[in-house]
Specification:
This protein is an alpha+beta fold. The chain contains 5 helices and 10 strands; from the N terminus they run αββββαββααββββα.
Length: about 200
């Protein structure tokens, strides 16, 4: 294992001499990169390839996660084992420090940042609803389900409970229509099933 560690260190020096300057190991792509192409997290100081960590944040936010964390963890070695061989230590727990919002905004695309703020707003306010037309977050009231988008470029109406399912109609009218449609569908299914049973007896 000691020979492997020495070979690894030698490889690092070769890469450094080839690329020039200080190198940083990115735990995402598992490659060494020049410092100028990496990003240093404000909260913990760990570095990743800028594009790698940006992709990581984009993925987390698209999954609805608004508290991404640093997962940097550096494996160390110690002397021990039979014959004084170097044996790897168990990899320590990841950093797990929350990524600062300022870092997130710097790294992700504008539309992803807007999505991040929308998710954060929805988590903070239980009565938050998103306009189905332009995705602007709004605070609603279940006692008054008729909502209007506050975005000046939109301004359309939607429902606290049913989004844009019954534009121009009340919740009661919509629910009554859905009830009637369900009854019709159930009757049709029963009719088809009856024909199938009668055909099977012939």
């Amino acid at each position: 294992t000691r020979h492997v560690s020495q070979s690894f260190a030698l490889s690092v020096e070769i890469v450094k001499s080839h690329l020039g300057g200080e190198l940083v190991f990115c735990p995402i792509c598992r490659e060494f990169e020049g410092v100028s192409k990496t990003f240093k997290l404000s909260g913990c100081g760990h570095r990743y390839c800028r594009c790698c960590f940006a992709s990581y944040l984009e993925c987390k936010i698209c999954e609805g996660q608004i508290k991404p964390t640093c997962f940097y963890s550096e494996e160390k070695t110690r002397e021990g084992g039979q014959g004084g061989r170097t044996t790897p230590v168990i990899i320590p727990p990841p950093c797990a420090k929350l990524v600062e919002e300022s870092d997130i905004q710097l790294l992700v695309r504008a539309e992803t940042w807007a999505k991040y703020e929308r998710f954060k707003f929805q988590r903070k306010h239980k009565n938050a609803r998103v306009c189905p037309w332009c995705e602007t977050p709004e605070l609603g009231d279940p006692g008054q389900p008729e909502m209007e988008c506050g975005n000046e470029k939109c301004g359309k109406q939607f429902c606290y409970f049913h989004s844009n399912a019954h534009v121009g109609k009340t919740c009661t009218e919509y629910e009554q229509r859905m009830h009637e449609e369900n009854l019709k569908n159930q009757a049709m299914i029963s009719s088809i099933a009856k024909v199938g049973r009668e055909g099977g007896r012939e």
